[in-house]
Amino acid sequence: YYFLDKNTKARPYLGAGINYTTFFSEKETLAGVTDLKLKDSWGAIVNAGVDIGLTDNLYLNTSVWYAKIKTKATFKLGGKEQRADVTLDPMVYFIGLGYKF
To answer: Which of 27, 48, 53, 66 is the most buried (most CB within 10 A)?
Structure first.
C-alpha cells in the first residue's frame, strides 16, 4: 500500500504477502553431522520501504522485509538419521534502482 500521491517525490509504502523459500548447498559445520537437508517452505512476509524519485523515470527504492520461515531439517549425526524443526526470522535490507516505463 503506497502512501501519498503518485507524483510525490518520496512515496513510503507497506506490504504483506507470502514467501517461498528454497534451500540449496546446505553445509554442516558441527562435527559428526552429515547429509544436511532443509525442506522448502512457505511463510508470511511483511515489508516497508520508500520509493524516491530521481528523475521522471528513475527512482531509488529502499526497503526492509521481515520473513517468518519454518522448515524441517534432516541430517545424520553419528550415522543415525535425525530430524529437527527449524524456525528462521530474517530481516532483509534492500536498496536498488527502478525505472518506470
So the answer is: 53
- ∠ CA 20-24-29, rounded to 5°: 125
51 part of a folded domain: yes
**CATH code, domain with 36:** 2.40.160.20
- Write the CB contacts of 6 (distance below 8 Å, at least 6 apart in sequence): none
Q: Which three cell numbers stand for residue 43?
A: 511463510
**CB distance 39 to 77 below 8 Å:** no
Give dist(CA 16, CA 45) in Å, integer: 6
> What's the whole-model pTM score?
0.75
Residue 72 maps to a domain: yes
Kindly state whether residue 56 falls inside one of the protein's structural domains: yes
